[in-house]
Design goal:
The protein is α+β, with helices and mostly antiparallel strands. It contains nine helices and six strands, in the order αβααββααβααββαα.
Length: about 425
Amino acid sequence: MRRVIRIAICMLLCTQVGRAQELLTVKEAIAIALENNYDIKLFQNNLRVAQENVTPGNAGMLPTVTGNFNQNNSLSNSNQTQANGDVRALDNAKNNSLNYGISVGWTVFDGLGMFSRYETLKELQKQGEAELQRSVVTRISDVISTYYTIVEQQNLLSAIDSSIVISQERLRTAENRFSIGKASRLEVLNVQVNLNTDESNRIKQENVVKNLKIVLNNLLARELQQDFQVIREVAIDETLTLGNLLEQSKSTNPDLILISINRRLAELEEKTVKANRYPTVRLNGGYNFSESESSLGFVAQSKSRGLTYGVTASVNIFDGFNQRRNERIAKLRIENADMQIEQMNLQIESEIAQAFNVYKTNLELVKLEEKNEQIARQNMNITLDKYKIGTLSAVEFRDAQENFINAVSRYNSAKTQAKLSETLLMELIGKIEL
């Protein structure tokens, strides 16, 4: 019986990796998610769009060149009465005209609006980068949380397996004792009920693990039914400090970065609106060719070519007070952005402080549950000795057995929760390091 207990404990505490199943580490899971996850791919494409838009031409800083071609033909019955009274008539008179050339336009001054638009495009690129970073951090956090939840539930499944092994041996012992008259039939039935309960719990727990693996496969964007094993060891960083976390969050938290970019965009919008108060100066030029033919008229055929150039200037004199309204709205948006920055800073600090308290509490629970697990193991060994010599009932042995399994389960749960709270802190500062 002692050997069976030791085997069960080893099954519970040692890492078991199925040979026929893939061993998936948390780093490998994250790498697969970053490569396959659809949300990340969408944000990557959005960032590429923003990068493509950052050009001087898109901001209106470069000239535009246009090629023009126009041809018109007509057939008509014409009657012309000239000044001297002569009448000229012609049926199916042909009139043809052909024009082609190149025109160039260049806005050389628009109140510096083109420069603010170019800066806006750069900020939109930064916005895309921050959104991609936030998506990556969120996905990594989801993968880590799901992975270590599987670890916790897998360890609980192993605990149930160990309990089944112990219960099976207890049943054999009880049946042997009953056969020689040292135990009642009631004791055998109680042990059988305990074994059935353990097997029922295993079926339920196995289903929990399978569903969690489906959730993780979904995050990795791969075959949902693909089975795998996880590494049971949970490494926890116990060196985190609240001051360092708060300081790092100011420069790496994606939400704070995005809100700062939004304020900068509001400032640039105000500059673009104010640019409408100034004149717009545009240079125009071109080189054109034209030909025309007429069957009836003073000029039967003409051709011309030449250069055209000039400058146009326009200024807004009155637009129904819309300019003033737009400037006021732009200023209000800047004020809103300032308030949002203060609000977000306070919210992030509050979330980090609360998460840090949970993190420290979980670290203390890990140490406490580790001691409880050691005590429960010692109690299990003592109970085993008493059960062998018949000074302990099967019900009392079952209590010790359940206490040991629960202690090991709580210890694994405490380690998992500590890891999840550490992951949450890293997500809040926007920087998860493996």
